[in-house]
Amino acid sequence: MPHSFGYKAQTRTLFKKRFGTKGAPNTTTFLRTFKRGDYVDIKVNSSVHKGMPFKYYHGRTGVIFNVNKRAVGIEVLKEVNGRKLEKRIHVAIPHVHHSKCRDEIIARKLSNDEHSAAVRAGTAEKKLLKRLPTQPKEAYFYNIEGIETIQPLPYVDLV
Fold it and tell me: Which residues contact 38 (CB under 8 A, 6 or more apart)?
């Protein structure tokens, strides 16, 4: 059997939509606002063919460098022969979602700013604001008193 290596080859499951999401995208999809510097995830919406990125970029995260009327320009890192190249692609709005990769960083920065303001005001005690790797669990002794051991009953053939 011949094997196809076309532009959208082997994307049957890659571009598959979730159950119950068949059809054209909602208007809220097109009304999302994007700004330069935003982190976005590229997730292909298979019901919109215009402005669809190449299958390699599906699931990748990039930074917006340009905003147009119907599309956004995204800088994505692509590994080619062991080195990472910065690729610039333009993708239609239905194929782009705001990324949640920076939510934790932004929340931590806000809480650190609040804490440092409280320390300056004198309402809180100074503490270390740097992140630490997860430490191993504390050592403890296991109490074996009250544990009952069970022995099997001897086999009896008389019933």
Answer: 63, 64, 98, 99
